[in-house]
């Protein structure tokens, strides 16, 4: 059992804190937002994440929330930095929250040995930056040096929103970058139940079959920091690659889903993250690819592959607009029903959501956009500045629509009663921007159905062949 402080009660911090407390550690989660802390104490979660509430309930007694550094830091053996790193003006992340947290940690460190661990996604070199800030703040507050009582580490987080708890308990690997072996030892001990898979699985998150011991990769600070960016950029370019080929597949009469299956069976490529669609969004891929480019520029190393992945990604939204425009003649005055607003299913997160970017493009062309989302509507009403109309039910969404566009692949959209809904449309056109619906069935029901990278019925190529 270790005493842990987590600074930042956002996605990463709260999930990490909950999972560590579930595993038996004593955890204090700190956030400077007092309203958020007060809410958490009363069981109000600041975002929607499956199983977070249940895991927190099972960890009760081992996890506390505070807005005061003096209640979290002095006793902690391991302090995680999990604060926000939003994009700054030049593409690189804004590190002001990291800086403020590191300084506050330094001022409040106790007498024992402490490992300060960076979990926020920060540019290479940030570990050293944090160490210098903590040491300076400690010296200023206490008048003496920390010397050997501090070690820093980088422990990048790979969790996916919507599956954050699952990913915390059953990760593909745990990466730790540190120069001080004591930091590595502390983190190995902290994660031991996960590394050995020796904890009782939460009943609602059964251990996956074939789950063995989890690889523990220890490396230097800079490499660990770069691993996080490299992983996210690689996944982003995998998706951009399949999206680029989807456009070609459409033209030559191939089906991108078959192509993805065919290449995915090659174990060197792998089947995942090859789903063509509206492109990627969310709080990580857009920000991290941009930060990587900024890092490259600063280091004088161009990164044309990452640059191209971003370009292809943003063009993907345009392609869907193009399809609608072609099918409807014009977008001016047309009513487009948007299925999904969140950047992906099982979350209400709207940050850099492809659905919202698509909505903005449609509005620019004079369309009316009416949107539905099973979970994100309340957040959309609060946060989205676009003049969207919101619909709570399939009927309210589709009445008088000129087209429906599926933008987020929520499972429930597959089971909507498409047969009876057809009569509500002005023109029964479905653009499935995630290849998520049963296209054959929709065609049978009398819809015009357009997917991404799938052969179009009656396309030129098909007629010729
Ligand atoms: C991602 C990484 O997966 C995670 O490891 C990292 O720590 C944070 O960033 P997340 O942003 O939660 O996680 O979402 P993810 O599930 O990776 O999806 C990202 C975007 O890619 C979504 O918009 C999703 O719709 C899109 N996507 C994903 C595709 O378009 N096709 C795919 O095949 C997979």
From TrEMBL:
**Active site annotation, chain numbering:** 284
Residues bound to substrate are 158-161, 228, 273-277, 281, 344
Which Pfam family, an example, fits this chain?
Answer: UDPG_MGDP_dh
* Gene3D superfamilies linked to this entry: Cytochrome c1, transmembrane anchor, C-terminal, NAD(P)-binding Rossmann-like Domain
Which residues does the UniProt record annotate as the domain UDP-glucose/GDP-mannose dehydrogenase C-terminal?
A: 337-439
| InterPro entries referenced in this protein's UniProt entry, alphabetically | 6-PGluconate_DH-like_C_sf, NAD(P)-bd_dom_sf, UDP-Glc/GDP-Man, UDP-Glc/GDP-Man_DH_C, UDP-Glc/GDP-Man_DH_C_sf, UDP-Glc/GDP-Man_DH_dimer, UDP-Glc/GDP-Man_DH_N, UDPglc_DH_bac
Per the UniProt record, which EC number(s) apply here?
A: 1.1.1.22
> Which biological process annotations from GO are given for this protein?
polysaccharide biosynthetic process; UDP-glucuronate biosynthetic process
UniProt keyword annotation of NAD present: yes
Enzyme class label:
oxidoreductase
Which SMART domains does the record cross-reference, listed alphabetically? UDPG_MGDP_dh_C
Where NAD(+) is bound, by residue? 31, 36, 85, 121, 161, 287, 351
Q: Its annotated pathway?
A: Nucleotide-sugar biosynthesis; UDP-alpha-D-glucuronate biosynthesis; UDP-alpha-D-glucuronate from UDP-alpha-D-glucose: step 1/1
What Gene Ontology molecular function terms does this protein carry?
A: NAD binding; UDP-glucose 6-dehydrogenase activity
What does the record give as the reaction this protein catalyses?
A: UDP-alpha-D-glucose + 2 NAD(+) + H2O = UDP-alpha-D-glucuronate + 2 NADH + 3 H(+)
Q: Which domain of life is it from?
A: Bacteria
Entry keyword set: NAD, Oxidoreductase
- PANTHER family recorded for this chain? UDP-GLUCOSE 6-DEHYDROGENASE TUAD
Family affiliation: Belongs to the UDP-glucose/GDP-mannose dehydrogenase family.
Q: What is this protein called?
A: UDP-glucose 6-dehydrogenase
């Amino acid at each position: 059992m270790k005493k842990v402080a987590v600074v930042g009660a956002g996605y990463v911090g709260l999930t990490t804190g909950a999972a560590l407390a579930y595993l038996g550690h004593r955890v204090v989660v700190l956030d400077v937002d007092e309203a958020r802390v007060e809410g958490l104490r009363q069981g109000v979660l600041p975002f929607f994440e499956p199983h977070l509430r249940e895991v927190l309930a099972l960890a009760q007694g081992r996890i506390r929330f505070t807005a005061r550094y003096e209640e979290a830091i002095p006793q902690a053996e391991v302090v995680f930095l999990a604060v926000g790193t939003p994009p700054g003006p030049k593409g690189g992340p804004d590190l002001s929250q990291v800086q403020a947290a590191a300084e506050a940690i330094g001022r409040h460190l106790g007498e024992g040995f402490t490992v300060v661990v960076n979990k926020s996604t920060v540019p290479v070199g940030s570990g050293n930056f944090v160490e210098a800030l903590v040491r300076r703040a400690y010296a200023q507050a206490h008048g003496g040096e920390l010397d050997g009582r501090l070690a820093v580490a980088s422990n990048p987080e790979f969790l996916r929103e919507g599956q954050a708890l699952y990913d915390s308990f059953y990760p593909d690997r745990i990466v730790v970058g540190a120069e001080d072996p004591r930091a590595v030892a502390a983190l190995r001990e902290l994660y031991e139940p996960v590394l050995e898979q020796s904890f009782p699985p939460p009943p609602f998150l059964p251990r996956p079959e074939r789950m063995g011991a989890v690889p523990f990769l220890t490396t230097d600070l800079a490499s660990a920091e770069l691993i996080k960016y490299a992983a996210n950029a690689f996944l982003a370019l995998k998706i951009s690659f399949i999206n680029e080929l989807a456009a070609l597949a459409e033209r030559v009469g191939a089906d991108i889903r078959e192509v993805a299956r065919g290449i995915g069976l090659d174990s060197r490529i792998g089947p995942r993250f090859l789903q063509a669609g509206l492109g990627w969004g969310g709080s990580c891929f857009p920000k991290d690819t941009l930060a990587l480019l900024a890092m490259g520029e600063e280091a004088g190393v161009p990164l044309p592959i990452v640059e191209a992945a971003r370009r292809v990604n943003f063009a993907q939204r345009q392609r869907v607009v193009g399809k609608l425009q072609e099918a409807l003649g014009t977008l001016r005055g047309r009513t487009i029903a948007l299925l999904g607003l969140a950047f992906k299913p099982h979350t209400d997160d709207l940050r850099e959501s492809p659905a919202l970017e698509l909505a903005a493009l449609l509005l620019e062309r004079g369309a009316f956009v009416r949107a539905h989302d099973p979970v994100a509507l309340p957040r959309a009403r609060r946060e989205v500045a676009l003049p969207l109309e919101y619909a709570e039910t399939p009927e309210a969404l589709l009445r008088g629509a000129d087209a429906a566009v599926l933008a987020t692949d929520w499972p429930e959209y597959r089971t909507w009663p498409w047969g009876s809904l057809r009569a509500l449309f002005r023109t029964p056109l479905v653009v499935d921007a995630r290849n998520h619906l049963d296209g054959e069935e929709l065609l049978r029901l009398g819809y015009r159905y357009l997917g991404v990278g799938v052969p179009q019925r009656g396309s030129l190529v098909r007629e010729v062949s």
